[in-house]
Amino acid sequence: MNQTSRFRIILARSNQVSVTIHRLVVTLCALIILWWGLLPEVALAQTQTAPPPQRTQQPTKTSSIQPYLDRVIKQLTEFRLDNGLKFIVLERHQAPVVSFLTYADVGGVDEPDGKTGVAHFLEHLAFKGTTRIGTTDYKAEKPLLESLERLDAQIKIAKVNGSKEKLTQLQQEFKQVESQAVKLVKQNELGQIVEQAGGVGLNANTSTEATRYMYSFPANKLELWMSLESDRFLDPVIRREFYKEKDVILEERRMRVENSPIGLMIEKFIDAAYKVHPYRRPVIGYDEDIRSLTPDDVQKFFDTHYVPSNLAIAIVGDVNPAEVKKLAKTYFGRYPAKPKAQVKITAEPKQTQTRSVTLQLPSQPWYLEGYHRPAINDPDNAVYEIIGSLLSDGRTSRLYKSLVEQQRLALNAEGFSGFPGDKYPNLMLFYALTSPNHTVDELAAALRTEIDKLKTEPVTATELQRVKTQARAGLLRSLDSNMGMAQQLLEYEVKTGSWRNLFQQLNQIAAVTPTDIQRVAKRTFTPENRTIGKLLSKQG
User: Of 182-186, 259-263, 281-285, which gets the smallest average pLDDT?
Assistant: First the structure.
């Protein structure tokens, strides 16, 4: 799903605070983001070498950023194929490398009821290859895959009927056929082709609202990428190693939820915060749904959502836009045009009273607090980003200085906006880890005090300018690499309707006033809009 190869989901027990505090803080950040699919994750054992940084010249501190932005916009080309597939191409000739990002406008929110996890499952299977890649003999492999699907259906029936002898027979036959099919698989052939051609960063992620596939190549491998990526979604073999991958995903869920106190807490928390919107469902899926998914379920989901009009591709680096367009027509123009699926997303009703969930598990005590806020395209989006920075952006933030440094109630206190996604109305989430001999209730009171200050005390000009500078610098840093630029361009293109809104965000950040902050804080941080999560320590 995301850059989650950076993180290992580790939860140490609470009696070794001095040793485990850093791990626990990183764990919660990782779990919150990883669990809900907000960062790229290596789906399988693909190439994991990070792409070399390709830096573009940044403006000096004393100069305006406008020339930089104008230059970027001038170097950008966009076009749409006849079948509806959108391309965004940005020329950056500083180094002979190119980054590619394929963005499918589909994620966890688009899954049918009872089929949670199917979007993430499909992401995993997208690395298994085609009828030409990933197999030694697809003609021999295909009937074996069909037999596995048939046997799996019979095994499910035998389990329901309670026929142990029949079940054992079918399971043995399933293992035999699966063993034959595995012998025909060329493991990770896509990754090997990419690596041998000098490619790096083969990766993918699934979030609540999108699925992204990415990697980088030397500039002279543009056509190879066109061939590989177009075949990948024109001729995928969804059934290859389907049942093996199901076991991998079930193990992921056990690691993140069943065996993780904070994972359980997050699942319960988001389920309390949302009552009808599909944001309430975990991207990885519920255990029973994952177990019941079939190859036909995944194939149907692919056929419905992976249509040209629901895909967008960003190509950033040392390329010629005219050549890109020519090759795109040749390779991606083969996709038949299909209408974009219209999934009805149920709007979440306004919350009218405080909601809370408490768990007692073998864990450090954590406190979570969330507030509903509008989607990314709301006029006040930049205000929410500034509020998030004021309260929880690093060691200069209000929460850290007050709860950690001054009162010493928390070992860490942070938060962020856009949980578990931002395409639809979402949450501003805050969380803190208690210091020894302090309680989550003390944390809650101190956190509330800092939040209430935003409603009653205007932010000073100095503090506001500091967080604006940090926010601007953070956004510019995200555009510093080819892949970072590709990701941001597509996020804004798909979610807001135009990649140009990425650059408008800088102007919107600069325009935020203390009055805006007070207005939004008063509207948002109310008891009836609040969801509370308490993870209490259970000894034993």
Answer: 259-263
